[in-house]
Write a structure and sequence with these properties.
Elements (H helix, E strand, L loop, with lengths): L1 H12 L2 E5 L3 E7 L2 E3 L2 E4 L5 E5 L2 E6 L2 H22 L5 H16 L8 E8 L2 E7 L5 E3 L2 E4 L3 H11 L6 H18 L7 E7 L2 E5 L5
Antiparallel strand pairs: 1-2, 1-10, 2-11, 3-4, 5-6, 6-7, 7-8, 8-9, 11-12
Length: 207
Protein backbone atom coordinates (compact mmCIF):
# COMPACT_ATOMS: atom_id res chain seq x y z
CA UNK A 1 0.00 0.00 0.00
CA UNK A 2 2.85 2.39 0.89
CA UNK A 3 4.58 1.78 -2.44
CA UNK A 4 1.28 2.32 -4.27
CA UNK A 5 0.78 5.69 -2.52
CA UNK A 6 4.33 6.85 -3.35
CA UNK A 7 4.01 5.83 -7.01
CA UNK A 8 0.66 7.59 -7.25
CA UNK A 9 2.25 10.78 -5.90
CA UNK A 10 5.02 10.60 -8.53
CA UNK A 11 2.34 10.10 -11.17
CA UNK A 12 0.61 13.30 -10.07
CA UNK A 13 3.76 15.47 -10.19
CA UNK A 14 3.59 15.51 -14.00
CA UNK A 15 1.22 17.93 -15.70
CA UNK A 16 -0.70 17.13 -18.90
CA UNK A 17 -3.46 19.13 -20.58
CA UNK A 18 -5.53 18.83 -23.75
CA UNK A 19 -8.17 21.06 -25.39
CA UNK A 20 -10.40 20.14 -28.34
CA UNK A 21 -11.09 22.93 -30.82
CA UNK A 22 -12.52 23.41 -34.30
CA UNK A 23 -10.72 20.69 -36.28
CA UNK A 24 -7.79 20.22 -33.91
CA UNK A 25 -6.65 19.11 -30.46
CA UNK A 26 -4.18 21.31 -28.59
CA UNK A 27 -2.02 19.43 -26.06
CA UNK A 28 0.74 20.42 -23.68
CA UNK A 29 2.93 18.76 -21.05
CA UNK A 30 5.60 19.93 -18.68
CA UNK A 31 9.16 18.82 -19.42
CA UNK A 32 10.38 18.19 -15.87
CA UNK A 33 11.09 14.71 -14.51
CA UNK A 34 11.63 14.48 -10.77
CA UNK A 35 12.05 11.73 -8.20
CA UNK A 36 11.39 12.61 -4.58
CA UNK A 37 13.02 16.05 -4.08
CA UNK A 38 15.49 15.69 -6.98
CA UNK A 39 14.93 17.13 -10.47
CA UNK A 40 16.41 14.54 -12.85
CA UNK A 41 15.65 16.22 -16.20
CA UNK A 42 14.19 19.49 -17.40
CA UNK A 43 13.79 18.54 -21.09
CA UNK A 44 11.66 15.38 -20.88
CA UNK A 45 9.23 14.87 -23.77
CA UNK A 46 6.12 13.27 -22.26
CA UNK A 47 4.35 12.95 -25.62
CA UNK A 48 4.68 9.91 -27.85
CA UNK A 49 3.58 9.96 -31.47
CA UNK A 50 1.58 6.76 -32.12
CA UNK A 51 0.75 7.48 -35.77
CA UNK A 52 0.69 10.41 -38.17
CA UNK A 53 -2.39 11.96 -36.50
CA UNK A 54 -2.32 10.41 -33.04
CA UNK A 55 -0.29 11.35 -29.98
CA UNK A 56 -0.29 10.02 -26.41
CA UNK A 57 0.67 12.07 -23.36
CA UNK A 58 1.72 10.08 -20.31
CA UNK A 59 2.50 10.82 -16.68
CA UNK A 60 3.95 8.56 -14.03
CA UNK A 61 7.21 6.82 -13.12
CA UNK A 62 9.52 7.03 -16.11
CA UNK A 63 9.99 3.25 -16.28
CA UNK A 64 6.26 2.65 -16.63
CA UNK A 65 5.63 5.52 -19.05
CA UNK A 66 8.45 4.46 -21.38
CA UNK A 67 7.68 0.72 -21.25
CA UNK A 68 3.93 1.16 -21.68
CA UNK A 69 4.25 3.88 -24.30
CA UNK A 70 6.67 1.93 -26.47
CA UNK A 71 4.53 -1.21 -26.15
CA UNK A 72 1.45 0.70 -27.37
CA UNK A 73 3.39 2.41 -30.15
CA UNK A 74 4.85 -0.82 -31.53
CA UNK A 75 1.58 -2.77 -31.28
CA UNK A 76 -0.36 -0.06 -33.11
CA UNK A 77 2.33 -0.01 -35.79
CA UNK A 78 2.06 -3.79 -36.12
CA UNK A 79 -1.73 -3.52 -36.49
CA UNK A 80 -1.23 -0.84 -39.14
CA UNK A 81 1.15 -3.07 -41.13
CA UNK A 82 -1.19 -6.05 -40.86
CA UNK A 83 -4.36 -4.18 -41.77
CA UNK A 84 -2.97 -1.68 -44.24
CA UNK A 85 -4.38 1.36 -42.41
CA UNK A 86 -3.93 3.18 -39.10
CA UNK A 87 -6.28 2.64 -36.17
CA UNK A 88 -8.94 5.26 -35.57
CA UNK A 89 -8.56 7.46 -32.50
CA UNK A 90 -11.48 5.66 -30.84
CA UNK A 91 -10.02 2.25 -31.71
CA UNK A 92 -6.57 3.19 -30.40
CA UNK A 93 -8.08 4.55 -27.16
CA UNK A 94 -9.97 1.32 -26.56
CA UNK A 95 -6.82 -0.72 -27.27
CA UNK A 96 -4.86 1.37 -24.76
CA UNK A 97 -7.63 0.98 -22.17
CA UNK A 98 -7.69 -2.79 -22.73
CA UNK A 99 -3.92 -3.04 -22.20
CA UNK A 100 -4.17 -1.05 -18.97
CA UNK A 101 -7.10 -3.18 -17.75
CA UNK A 102 -5.27 -6.43 -18.56
CA UNK A 103 -2.11 -5.32 -16.75
CA UNK A 104 -4.17 -4.10 -13.78
CA UNK A 105 -5.24 -7.70 -13.09
CA UNK A 106 -1.65 -8.92 -12.81
CA UNK A 107 1.31 -8.13 -10.58
CA UNK A 108 2.63 -5.75 -13.22
CA UNK A 109 0.07 -2.94 -13.35
CA UNK A 110 1.23 0.26 -15.01
CA UNK A 111 1.17 3.43 -12.89
CA UNK A 112 0.41 5.72 -15.83
CA UNK A 113 -2.20 8.38 -16.50
CA UNK A 114 -2.81 9.29 -20.12
CA UNK A 115 -4.32 11.74 -22.57
CA UNK A 116 -4.83 10.44 -26.10
CA UNK A 117 -5.33 13.08 -28.79
CA UNK A 118 -6.04 12.33 -32.44
CA UNK A 119 -7.73 13.36 -35.64
CA UNK A 120 -9.54 11.07 -38.11
CA UNK A 121 -12.69 11.04 -40.24
CA UNK A 122 -14.76 11.56 -37.09
CA UNK A 123 -12.86 14.79 -36.38
CA UNK A 124 -10.63 15.79 -33.44
CA UNK A 125 -10.93 13.65 -30.32
CA UNK A 126 -9.42 13.65 -26.84
CA UNK A 127 -9.57 10.67 -24.46
CA UNK A 128 -8.81 10.77 -20.75
CA UNK A 129 -7.46 7.52 -19.25
CA UNK A 130 -6.12 6.78 -15.79
CA UNK A 131 -4.05 4.01 -14.21
CA UNK A 132 -7.22 2.13 -13.18
CA UNK A 133 -8.14 1.78 -16.89
CA UNK A 134 -11.09 4.14 -16.90
CA UNK A 135 -11.60 5.96 -20.20
CA UNK A 136 -13.71 8.95 -21.18
CA UNK A 137 -13.99 11.08 -24.30
CA UNK A 138 -13.70 14.70 -23.15
CA UNK A 139 -13.69 18.21 -24.66
CA UNK A 140 -10.76 19.09 -22.40
CA UNK A 141 -8.75 17.25 -19.78
CA UNK A 142 -5.77 17.49 -17.46
CA UNK A 143 -3.72 15.13 -15.32
CA UNK A 144 -1.54 15.64 -12.27
CA UNK A 145 -1.62 17.99 -9.30
CA UNK A 146 -1.57 20.84 -11.82
CA UNK A 147 -5.06 19.82 -12.92
CA UNK A 148 -6.38 21.01 -9.54
CA UNK A 149 -5.51 24.57 -10.57
CA UNK A 150 -6.69 24.54 -14.20
CA UNK A 151 -10.01 22.67 -14.33
CA UNK A 152 -11.92 25.70 -13.07
CA UNK A 153 -10.15 27.86 -15.67
CA UNK A 154 -11.10 25.39 -18.40
CA UNK A 155 -14.71 25.30 -17.17
CA UNK A 156 -14.85 29.09 -17.30
CA UNK A 157 -13.14 29.79 -20.64
CA UNK A 158 -13.63 26.70 -22.80
CA UNK A 159 -16.13 27.02 -25.65
CA UNK A 160 -16.99 24.23 -28.14
CA UNK A 161 -15.61 24.90 -31.61
CA UNK A 162 -12.85 27.23 -30.42
CA UNK A 163 -10.32 28.53 -32.91
CA UNK A 164 -6.65 27.67 -32.41
CA UNK A 165 -5.94 31.25 -31.36
CA UNK A 166 -8.68 31.13 -28.72
CA UNK A 167 -7.51 27.71 -27.47
CA UNK A 168 -3.96 29.04 -27.16
CA UNK A 169 -5.34 31.88 -25.05
CA UNK A 170 -7.05 29.40 -22.69
CA UNK A 171 -3.87 27.29 -22.55
CA UNK A 172 -1.87 30.40 -21.69
CA UNK A 173 -4.20 31.08 -18.74
CA UNK A 174 -3.85 27.48 -17.54
CA UNK A 175 -0.05 27.34 -17.76
CA UNK A 176 0.28 30.70 -16.04
CA UNK A 177 -1.95 29.45 -13.21
CA UNK A 178 0.12 26.29 -12.76
CA UNK A 179 3.35 28.29 -12.67
CA UNK A 180 1.92 30.70 -10.12
CA UNK A 181 0.10 28.28 -7.79
CA UNK A 182 1.88 24.92 -7.96
CA UNK A 183 4.60 24.48 -5.34
CA UNK A 184 6.75 22.38 -7.71
CA UNK A 185 8.78 24.24 -10.34
CA UNK A 186 7.63 23.46 -13.89
CA UNK A 187 10.01 25.63 -15.94
CA UNK A 188 9.23 24.51 -19.47
CA UNK A 189 6.28 23.10 -21.43
CA UNK A 190 6.02 21.34 -24.77
CA UNK A 191 2.97 22.26 -26.86
CA UNK A 192 1.65 20.43 -29.93
CA UNK A 193 -1.37 20.51 -32.23
CA UNK A 194 -3.02 17.44 -33.77
CA UNK A 195 -5.18 18.14 -36.83
CA UNK A 196 -5.86 16.96 -40.39
CA UNK A 197 -2.26 17.70 -41.40
CA UNK A 198 -0.74 15.63 -38.59
CA UNK A 199 1.10 16.35 -35.34
CA UNK A 200 3.15 19.54 -35.18
CA UNK A 201 4.99 21.59 -32.55
CA UNK A 202 3.78 25.09 -31.75
CA UNK A 203 5.52 27.73 -29.61
CA UNK A 204 4.65 27.79 -25.92
CA UNK A 205 2.43 30.83 -25.25
CA UNK A 206 4.24 33.60 -23.32
CA UNK A 207 3.63 33.35 -19.59
Amino acid sequence: HFVHVILNRWTKMDFLIGIVGDGFVLVAADSAKARSVVLMKDNMDKMLKLSDKLVMLSSGPVGDTVAFGESIQKNLKLQSLRNGYDSSTWGAANFVRHQLATALRTRHAYQVNLLLAGWDEAGPQLYYLDYLASMNKVPFGAHGYGSFFVLSTLDRWYKPGMSLEAAMGVLQKCLAEVRKRFVSNLPEFKVRVVDATGVRDVPTPPL
